[in-house]
Amino acid sequence: xxxxxxxxxxETWTTNARITNKDMSAATGYITFGLSFNTSGGTSTRVYIxxxxxxxxxxxxxxxxxxxxxxxxxxxxxxxxxxxxHVDGNQDGICDKCxxxxxxxxxxxxxxxxxxxxxIKDGLDCCKYEEEPEAKxxxxxxxxxxxxxxxxxxxxxxYGPTAETSYTYKVDSQTLTCREGYTHLGWxxxxxxxxxxxxxxxxxxxxxxxxxxxxxxxxxxxxxxDDDGDGFCDDDQICMHPKDxxxxxxxxxxxxxxxxxxxxxxPQPSVPEPSNDLLETxxxxxxxxxxxxxxxxxxxxxxxxxxxxxVTVGTPQPVSDATYTCTVKLQRADAVTKYGNDHxxxxxxxxxxxxxxxxxxxxxxxxxxPVTIEVTCESTQPAAPEKPNTLxxxxxxxxxxxxxxxxxxxxxxxxxxxxxxxxxxxxxxxGDDYYVDATLNLPYYLGQVNExxxxxxxxxxHRLYNKNETxxxxxxxxxxxxxxxxxxxxxxxxxxxxxxxVYVYFHAINVAANGTVNEVDRKDLGLxxxxxxxx
Length: 535
Known about the structure:
By secondary structure, this protein is mainly β. It is built from 5 helices and 32 strands. It has helices at residues 118-121, 276-280, 332-339, 442-452, 519-525, and strands at 2-6, 9-13, 29-35, 43-49, 62-66, 71-75, 81-85, 137-144, 154-162, 166-170, 182-188, 203-207, 212-221, 283-288, 298-301, 311-313, 317-318, 324-331, 344-345, 351-359, 362-365, 371-376, 398-401, 422-424, 428-430, 433-441, 462-464, 471-479, 482-485, 491-496, 502-505, 508-511. The strands form 10 sheets. Strands 16, 17, 18, 20 and 21 form a 5-stranded antiparallel beta sheet that branches. Strands 24, 25, 26, 28 and 29 form a 5-stranded antiparallel beta sheet that branches.
């Protein structure tokens, strides 16, 4: 028998009582704990424990979970649970225990507190409020000319849809002049109105409840007067010239435009059509403007397209008694297609137009020719290389003596280009590749070799075999970032210079006393073998 006191709990346990572990599992075996006696104090005593007895304790519920029905459930460490209503002691709309938002939501998930919800203002994602967009409306304002006859119509001015619940129009400021014999006073709400309610610039507001409205022209009949004698009514500028049954003006010497006074005209002299030879001179040039596209421009004669659909030659129109003009038009799309289907015209116009003028008995082109059509594409190539500053170490050629076999070929050294040595042309695109030409001054390089005297020439100076060929052109191709010499290695023929020199002064030839003119000089100068004739 054991007296157990825990807090306010006091009870006598019978024999074979036991103590459970903290997790309420059975504690068995021998344990040692302190016993309190009135006389001797705490003493260690071995007690064998069996059976079970639960000690009472205060539950500490935590890990509260929202049940979705206005309640939440908490759980104690001992395993016992409890369900309670949400608590909002802070009055912030958030449950103090499970932290669930307590604001109610509508069927679309919007907070019923609307856009004033504090949670939304604080940036919490537990509440939202999405305003419904306003309905859209289409507005129409019709202008009815309000008469039957030539020029009568009905304008439909519409705007929409729009989110606005109303739309305000400004009345058109145009004064109608299409009804002959009447003056336009303005506009009204009804067709039988005699006074205008609306004038140009007045505002008319239509609402979503009445989005459609028609206003009617108000007319006042008047008598045409032509006090200034120009043939037009002083009030509405209506033409007052009489017309015959064909509608032609009957007033002699009428100067009114044909739009109001068509006139009888005498038959015009026949004008020949532009010849095919002239049409062949009309050219269209298609040019790709895409940078580095590599596409060259192309020119086409109009006659290349003239199958009856692409090209139109207009009817000659008189300018004066002996001068006429006509136009020739080509569909731009046909020229672009001929240039290449992968190109796009940069212009929105559909035609190319030339003007031809007939004067003094012949047709001539009096407009721009050729006409250029600019197109673009998606194809690009590497940019053209820049002109090289030097070809030193890149180019090569040889001098070869034609007189002495032992005089080996000599490859002169190149240096930076100059007026004396060589020049480099601008970069030239040939097909898809880029080239430059180097033009060498042969006397300059031969002089350099003679001055340096290579041992293989055995101390002999040389001169050009063909004295008229003083330059050499070598072509270089741009390949993988380098300029590469093209063709076979050039060989320039030279000849040994004999001690006998030939000089020409005023057509007189002097021959050195101890020498015979060499074979080349004899050919050049026309001398005989002994070199004495004509000396």
